[in-house]
Amino acid sequence: MTSRPAAAQHLRDLARLRRVRDRIDREYAQPLDIEALARGAHMSAGHLSREFRLAYGESPYAYLMTRRIERAMALLRRGDLSVTEVCFAVGCSSLGTFSTRFTELVGMPPSTYRRHAAGATAGMPPCVAKQVTRPIRNREAPVTEPQLG
What we know:
By secondary structure, this protein is an all-alpha fold. 67% of the residues lie in helices and 0% in strands.
């Protein structure tokens, strides 16, 4: 059985992790690093990474990149920006890293996605297009079977 102080600390940690996740959601286009996120949550970088992975199934960096790729997909569907412009608009500083991560999550390079996506979501409300084209998350998180006790 969990003691009350330990349970209270766990709830405080979850609230901090939620604030970190919310900050990533808001500031995805800004330069964010784990040390800055950890300082803002009053945790060490290692502790934040471990706890974030336990709570959300992926590291803070993977979560940040997923947010950036989701936004990049929306910008590429619009079709008025080049892949390089989209890369920098979503906060990535390396076109190579952006393209690699985009391809891992979406299944095709950003330039191919840009060519195909504009027609695929034509006439679809943006909120529906976002849901339909959302990248697969947690690909790097291990798949575990539920434990029946």
